[in-house]
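Rather than argue in generalities, we reproduce a single protein record, letters for residues, whole numbers for local backbone shapes, just as it appears below:
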Amino acid sequence: MVISIIANSQISYKSMGGSDKIFIELARAWKKSGVRVLIYGCREAGAMCRNAGLQDEFRVFSKFDVEKFGLFAAYFLRTACGIFRGRLIKEGVLYSSSDFYPDLVFAFWQKMINANLKWAAGIFLIAPHPLKNSSARTFRGVIYWFTQKIAIMLLRLRADCVVVLSEEDKAALVKYGIHRGKVVVISPGIDLEGIAGVPETAEKRYAACFVGRFHQQKGIPELLHIWKIVTAKFPDAKLALVGWGSQSWIKLINSTVQKLGLENNVCILGFLDNSEKYRVLKSSSLFVFPSSYESWGIVVAEALGCGCPVVAFDISATRKFKKGVVLTDLADTGKFADEITRLLGDKAGLFALAQQAREAAAEFSWQRTADTLVNAIRRSDA
């Protein structure tokens, strides 16, 4: 079997989103199991592939960098490349790594001109309705919601298999007209070997850490106000922020930290991946996850694998984790802060929760996820 991956929507050389992590780990697992993997994408995706040891599988597809052209122009030009390229992929399975147009339109066009291809399409977050979710009530949030509706129409017309991360997302796509039998739910894995290779720390440097994009969805401003409450009881408690975002978000975070007087309590570490990220997780007493909506939480699973208990808002994505996670009502920042302070003051309880976290993480395997998807694609041949 040959699997060609389209990874043409990456926006930075210094970051990695959930869909990026998924295509990288699927490619590594497929390669390990003997599947021939080819990856077509932008130069930012090429950097990710090199870091993951997939440089031999990568082919540069478009050269329109977001840093040079801006997001919308780069996406338009990459999408145009996908339309005007001829029959590039001649056999096997085509996997589009996201529902963004630079990935999806290219895959749709390849399927149009070569009906023998099997198209498996990843869609890893159903855009919330801007009128029903305040964190999506931005210009980009409205654009994403609208363009995703068109993307789903294209999937309904041509995709052989649509890959999602939750039963809730599957139900949403079925509601939008995609046949139930085409939608495959997968559970992402974690790199247990990589995590095990990072030594445990005798002392915790951070009381808690956050890992993710700096974005309204992720609840960063709320987290900073939560941390202000925590420091009233633990004045020296440090919060590590691992992630990336636009300059406007960096400016907002820095100004909020200064406004709240948290300069000595918040450490902004930037984007970290693999061993560097695991080292911060293992150096933290808690992982905090204040997202308002998600389809899944790969970083939650990684935190559990590092023996780092999680405090999170009660959303569908966090309910999947049965051990090592403490949930609070969505948007109740006071209760969120109370749970953090309770755990920081209960060393025995925190230790027991850390043991539960490691046990829960053992079930997350990228190889199992990759095999599940291949089997689903094979069933679509029948």
User: Anything to note?
Assistant: The chain has two domains: 2-189+365-381, 192-361.
